[in-house]
Amino acid sequence: MSRANDIQQLYAQMREWRHHLHRFPETAFEETQTAKFIADKLASFGLEVHQGLGETGVVATLTAGSGDKKIALRADMDALFIQEQNSFAHKSCHDGKMHACGHDGHSAMLLGAACYLAEHRNFSGTVYFIFQPAEEGRAGAKRMIDDGLFEKFPADCVFGLHNFPDIPPGHFAVKSGAMMASFDCFEIIIAGQATHAAMPHLGNDAIVASAKLITALQTIVSRTVNPIDPAVVSITQIHAGNTWNALPESVLLRGTFRCFSSEAQKIIADKITRLVNAICEGFEVSAKIKFNPENPGYPVTFNAKAETELALQVAMAVAGKDCVDQQPALCMGSEDFAFMLQEKPGCYIWIGNGSSENGCLLHNPHYDFNDRILPVGTAYWVKLVETVLR
């Protein structure tokens, strides 16, 4: 029986695994039951399983033949703090949490690949299956690396995969170099002097200063960053005041910026600092700025040339040459797999999830992973291993 037919035989199991994970979503560093479910499956396939890296991470090892090359494959496990609005049978059972980004599908596909490879072992070398926690803004990849991921599991290269709406189902998109943007957060507290709203001249208005600052921050991309370098700065939160007739003592602003080079990251951070200090001095208010106050920023997701060529060959072998976009548009979204790509050469690829109609967009309460692409993603992983570890 061919590889494709064998993998298709796993479809019902993968669909069952995916629906189970979707029903019981867990968020960053709380994926205890998710990790146990995955670890139990991996152990049942006969793999050596390690738990606890990055708090809830799971890494399984499979070796065949006499080859000494080692490849790592990564899937993310965490869900989002989103209230699901779907009504199908496998909808979330956890209030306020759902798999709105497809990590349930990513985990199911990598489990399918582990199951197939453990049974057939048509390769020579070692595969590390990495199931990572806390991708959604909490840098779980960095936590696993800091805990010794690549010291304990010394892969020569590392590969990641993510579903993407509005790419036809089962198609792929990938290119070398930058694929996804860096991600940085900032928090600004502007402190003035509170006063009666009828007598603003007796205080220092933090709200007016913050309004001027918000407008000025939008000039960073248009007037400071090189026009050919994609970048965006967004204010996402404003918190101030609690009554109608008083100017508050302070205003809290939070926001994010994204770009595709470390140089642009530095330029944007420096300009934010300069604008905050200058504008606040002009309005006679003070300000405190914190960058990435809760978690580290994410670097650019940057694919290595040789590993991308391998991924392209494999994707075309699995889906057909006409079903692989070799020049996808850059995505301003970010991905903490970028930390792994800083440690090891590798490639991050997108697999099409199909149309985004009816709310099937990433991070949308109506999103659901497309079960039809489970065998395609698994076939990509299997073919990749068999190609790298010939």
Helices, strands, pairings?
Layout: H1 3-9, H2 11-23, H3 32-44, E1 48-51, E2 58-64, E3 70-76, H4 103-120, E4 125-132, H5 140-146, H6 149-152, E5 157-165, E6 172-173, E7 177-180, E8 184-191, E9 195-196, H7 206-217, H8 219-223, E10 231-240, E11 246-247, E12 250-259, H9 262-282, E13 286-291, E14 301-303, H10 305-319, E15 324-325, H11 337-343, E16 346-354, H12 374-388
Parallel strand pairs: 3-4, 3-5, 5-16, 6-15
Antiparallel strand pairs: 1-2, 2-4, 6-16, 7-14, 8-12, 8-13, 9-11, 10-12
What does the model show?
The protein folds into two domains: 3-180 and 299-388, 3-Layer(aba) Sandwich (Aminopeptidase); 184-291, 2-Layer Sandwich (Alpha-Beta Plaits). Helix 2 packs antiparallel against helix 4 (103-120), helix 7 (206-217) runs antiparallel to helix 9 and helix 10 (305-319) packs across helix 12 (374-388). The two termini are 20 Å apart. It is elongated. It has helices at residues 3-9, 11-23, 32-44, 103-120, 140-146, 149-152, 206-217, 219-223, 262-282, 305-319, 337-343, 374-388; strands at residues 48-51, 58-64, 70-76, 125-132, 157-165, 172-173, 177-180, 184-191, 195-196, 231-240, 246-247, 250-259, 286-291, 301-303, 324-325, 346-354. It contains twelve helices and 16 strands. Helix content is 35%, strand content 24%. The strands form four sheets. Strands 1-2-4-3-5-16-6-15 form an eight-stranded mixed β-sheet, sandwiched between helices. A four-stranded antiparallel β-sheet has the order 10-12-8-13, with helices on one face. Strands 7-14 form a two-stranded antiparallel ribbon. With 390 residues, the protein is an alpha/beta fold.
